[in-house]
Amino acid sequence: MFEPVPVRRSRVLLPPRARLACLAVILLAAGASVLLFEPQRLLAAGWPPQLSGAGAVLVFGLAYGVCTAALVPRPILNLAAGALFGAQAGFAASLGGTVLGAGLSFALGRTLGQEALRPYVRGRWLEAADGQLSRHGFRSMLAIRLFPGMPFAVANYAAAVSRMRYLPFLVATGLGSVPNTAAYVIAGSQATSPTSPAFLVSMGFIVLSAAVAAVVGWRKRHRIAARAEAPEAVVSAAGYSGPEAGAGEREPAGAGTAS
């Protein structure tokens, strides 16, 4: 896959652990900025009066992407988008910001963290989860976005450390984030009318999607566990382990040849 020149140069100039340290510094700085500027104040203070119209929606979408990459929870931003711009414009800003933030997180994780973190993907659970994202990246990420039981940032960086490709990750993120994003934005746009049908339906969908996410996550957990334990079960049933079995099987062949 083609990589931009700055990315290739960073891989040459900095060893994996140094790039991982850079990623940690970036995330810490982003988190400190969030605590300092408190973007959640948009829910109470509103949008700056100097910005309005399509320009305000565009700026909000860009800020949304940066904030999600800086680990700001998306529900807060979605509610703010609906309260500030209404359902339609708020949804456009939120979905665009979601894809932008996911892309930024994926690029940071892939460029600065993948080579340093992949050696630590050990154990049956981690290897099974990594294999699921690497082999079935699009449908796995689509399910994660449709039923958001995993935190947004965690899913981004987990996909970046895996071998999932960039384009399927972005497409699955955009498609899978539509229902949940729309529900939060509509709830935010109707926050002043908590008894309205639109608000009640959107909140009902949010609660239902959370329940479905819990069920899907529970089933996926057991499925990954079964896949992870399957090779060990086969080996145990055969009564030998890999390297020792290879030696044991080759020994009779060698003896037969010698005789």
What would a concise description of this structure say?
This protein has helices at residues 5-13, 16-37, 42-45, 53-69, 74-117, 124-135, 137-146, 152-161, 166-176, 178-189, 197-238, 242-258. By secondary structure, it is an all-alpha fold.
Description:
By secondary structure, the chain is mainly α. The chain has one domain (5-240). The chain is built from 12 helices and no strands. Helix 5 packs parallel to helix 8. The protein is globular. The model is unreliable at 4-10 and 233-259 (pLDDT under 50).
Based on secondary structure, the structural category is mainly alpha
Q: Biggest β-sheet, characterized?
A: none
Poorly predicted ranges? 4-10, 233-259
Task: Report the order of strands and helices.
Answer: HHHHHHHHHHHH
Distance between the termini: 53 Å
**What amount of the residues lies in strands?**
under 5%
Q: What is the number of independent domains?
A: 1
Taking all Cα atoms into account, the compactness measure Rg is 23 Å
User: Shape, please?
Assistant: globular
Would you tell me the overall average pLDDT? 75
